[in-house]
Sequence to fold (125 residues):
Amino acid sequence: MGDSFSDNLKEARLAANLTQREVAEKIGVAKSTYSQYESGNREPMIATIKKLAKLLNVSADELLGLPVNADEMELRRPAIKTLVRSAKGNDDIDIEMAAQQLRRLKLYHDMIVEAQNVHPDAEKR
Fold:
């Protein structure tokens, strides 16, 4: 994720495989309002940012483009936990869910790499 809230929001929404309308409904705003968040024409209130972060399974810091500590990312994300459980022998894997989880995992990986580039003294894993 980058420095732009609107770009980060769209990236997180796409990774969650949700439409603008679905996100708007789930956070209780009009679709047009949500669309303005993604276009950068409107900024949400803090309470709305919290709802978005929870819904999209990212931190508010990630949405806001703030540096993310790589240690905070480690295995606390449900996407990563789901993949770990699947790898341990759960054969009942929903392919669509697995694809969504892999997209999220790639986003988290990219954020960790970016955080390490922002903080070059951070311990490499």
